[in-house]
Amino acid sequence: MARLNYHHLYYFWRVALTGNLTQAARELHISQSALSAQIKQLEHNMNVTLFERAGRTLVLNDTGRRVLAYADDIYSTGEELESFLKKGIFTQTQHLSIGVLTTLSRNFVESFISPLLANPKVSFSLTTKGMSDLLVGLSNHELDLVLTNRPVSAEGQNTQWQTSLVSRQPLAIVGPKTKKKIDAFPEGYEKARWVLPGKSTEIRNAFNLLCAQWQYQPDIQAEADDMAMLRLLARDSGAFAVLPPVVVKDEIDQGLLVVYQELPNAYENFYAITAQRKFMPDSLVELLQKTEPVQKTS
């Protein structure tokens, strides 16, 4: 069998990831015919067939899927090496690229990165995106770390992730300081209006469970998935809100809001997700060294 041509393999990898020869050719800045010829040459040299056609789309067959798994390892490691050469021990200052889930509390993020602000040998960038885009950034080594309030799921299909629980914040009922003192839920909340996280969130599920336990029907004034918006609604609406107090820490410190009571055995978890890699910047290791890995997925 002929020796493997890694140039041909790279072209196969890019086409396999996009599933579209035209798009891959555009991204690689070569003609579609030249790209097709490179892949056919790979198949000929290795005496295999890697794709089947479904209309205008190229679909990997069983052999192609196995080859893609190897190509993922080869080129992901190569991108990791490139990242190391750019960010590693050859520079005086290490740079961390941190991805943040769009709905995450900014107060939590600020608290988490505070050790970096005190380290003159570390610079960092923050990028806010949805979960799928963040995991793609980790896979491509564009991001070193992702901060989120939900653990990684089956969204990471080909890459192993390391998920660390970095903070666990109790959930609480928060409201304006002008409200009268309330002893225990649901007493005192009979005419209350509420601003709540969206129906699909863990926070909302915890509050719904409390309401069901006491057969309480909340009068919902507004809902928001974004913690920054929920923070503003809690501050300006005059209604009660359910969230981790860290989200409205500044408003509590200023006396604009107060914590009326914590929800029993209810928490919001904050996670740091990294890709399994051979090299991890020292500054990232130091940032995570006090956290405990809670799960791996692949």
From TrEMBL:
One of its GO terms (molecular function) is transcription cis-regulatory region binding. Pfam families: HTH_1 (PF00126), LysR_substrate (PF03466). InterPro entries: LysR_HTH_N, LysR_subst-bd, WH-like_DNA-bd_sf, WH_DNA-bd_sf. It comes from the Bacteria. Gene3D superfamilies: Periplasmic binding protein-like II, Winged helix-like DNA-binding domain superfamily/Winged helix DNA-binding domain. Keywords: DNA-binding, Transcription, Transcription regulation. Residues 4-61 form the HTH lysR-type domain. Belongs to the LysR transcriptional regulatory family. This is LysR family transcriptional regulator.
